[in-house]
Amino acid sequence: MDNQIVDLYLNDPKVKKDWQAFLTSLNITNFAANEVDQIDYTIGIYNGDDLVATGSVAGNVLKYIGVCNKGVTNGSRFNAIVSELVNRQFAQHIYHLFVFTKIKYSESFQHIGFSELAHSDEAAFLETGSPDVNDFLAEIPRVDGQNDKQVAGIVMNANPFTRGHRYLVEQAASQNDLVYVFVVNTDASLFTTAERFQLVQAGTADLDNVIVVDGGDYMVSYATFPAYFLASPDQAVTYQTTLDARIFRNVIAPALNIKTRYVGSEPLSRTTNIYNEVLNRELPPAVQVKVIDRTQTLTSDQQVITATQVRQFIKNGELSSLSDFVPETTAQFIQHHLTPLQTRIQEGMNIDGN
Amino acid sequence: MEIKETAVAGTLESSDIQIMISKAATGIQIDLQSDVEKQFGDQIRNVITTTLNALDVTAAKVKAVDKGALDCVIKARTIAAVQRASQTTDQPAWEVL
Questions:
Q1: Are A90 and A74 in contact (CB under 8 A)?
Q2: Do A83 and B14 touch (CB under 8 A)?
């Protein structure tokens, strides 16, 4: 039968080989383990013995969608595959989906109810379902007369919140009427999303013009910027951060009247360094980028403050110099939760990344 | 009926319509996407709104992606989505049909 959809089990080597060969024939060639391993399930359509359409899902992201239109109405297999993936996700109560695709396919997705959040020269990033970006923006607290105020934004993972983060927020707060601190929502760090959020709130509670907000799926999330969480080649980082920066510039900043984005100078992390360069290239003139010099926040013995170093202290149980690196609120949290944090590290949580 | 959660009915295939219903504070808000929006947009919105009224839904956010569905299909998909969203699939609302 035409358009009969079947499950493809990629752990069967024969199926996986056919699947790869089919996608390769459509110029989808990235089968790196860190991409393929994330796939939750894969479906396909066969015509006789030949695979003629396929699509996969990883979390809330549709991936590896490829369709051959030979001999059928253009788009019918594509619609069948995407319908099936979308319906299966909805059945699992995942109502909000994303897709990264080549720019030439963006229109096909828009045709079936996806809306484009941003695109670069090569790639487009789209979402469908609910709650969408408008719902996300509507939930963010506003202040009276926000459109006449000077508003700034900072995005941070804060794993955990350090004196370096604090200095960045203080600088922004002293130079603006209102500062939004967006905390990265993806839960892939030593400190959980709830813990990171709470520590940023506690560490900035005394600054009246700072609003701490969940960054949702739109700022440095696993959906927009997986390379932040997985070691990836520079090219992938540039490509993903370009889309991330454009979402901020085109969608987030205008809705909240954010005119300046603050970032810390980044001597130590390659990925974050590339991200800062891309922000500098993409955001102006709509949004100014202010780089705050990190060396302004050396510890008493001239070390650069990094959250990476703090995680190292936790691993080794050396809490003596902790308060040089983190504010009192974070230090207390670490002292009270040292054992569970160390357990997470022992259980394999990577602490050398971001 | 009260919309309790997000729910969907229908597909994106030709002659069908996919209807997603989610909670809203007040009023019915319809976001319709259709190739025949110019010719039939008002009619499609009208069928959805009438069906929602018949089901006593007063507050909902509807996202509809139409692929050329006939009125009876639009109506059926809307009813199915509402019943799923209001967790009443065990009591089919026959009289609305």
A1: no
A2: no
B62 confidence band (pLDDT: 50, 70, 90): very high
CA separation for the pair A24, A66 (Å, rounded): 9
Please report the pLDDT score of residue A273 as a whole number.
85
Residue at B1 is within a domain: no
> Which phi-psi region, left, alpha or beta, contains residue A171 (left: φ > 0; alpha: ψ -120 to 50)?
alpha
Shortest distance between the Cα of A308 and any Cα of chain B, in A, equals 40
- Rounded-to-integer distance, Cα A201 and Cα A180, Å: 11
Inter-chain residue contact A83 with B13, CB threshold 8 Å: yes
- CATH 3.40.630.30 in chain A: give the residue spans: 5-130
Is pLDDT above 70 for A95?
yes
What are the tokens at B27? 């009023």
DSSP string, A26-41: TT-----HHHHTT--E
* A5-130: CATH topology: Aminopeptidase (3.40.630)
Q: What CATH number should be reported for the domain holding residue B72?
A: 3.30.230
Which pLDDT does position A262 carry in this prediction?
95
Q: Which part of chain A is CATH 3.40.50.620?
A: 135-297
ipTM over 0.90? The verdict is: no
- Mutation pick from A45, A72, A83, A127 vs chain B, by most beta carbons of B within 10 Å, is A83
Kindly report, residue by residue over A225-253, the tens digit of the pLDDT.
Answer: 777 776 777 777 888 889 899 999 999 99
A284 interfaces chain B, CB cutoff of 8 Å: no
Q: Taking Cα atoms as reference points, which of A245, A239, A181 lies closest to residue A209?
A: A181
Range of the domain at B56: 7-96
Q: What is the architecture of the domain spanning A135-297?
A: 3-Layer(aba) Sandwich (3.40)
Using CA coordinates, name the residue in chain A closest to B17: A112
Interface of B with A (CB under 8 A): 5-8, 11-14, 18, 20, 22, 33, 61, 63, 65, 67
Q: What is the DSSP string of A118-166?
A: EE-SSEEEEEEESS-HHHHHHHS---TTGGGS-EEEEEE--TT--HHHH
Average pLDDT over residues A274-286: 91
Number of domains in chain B: 1
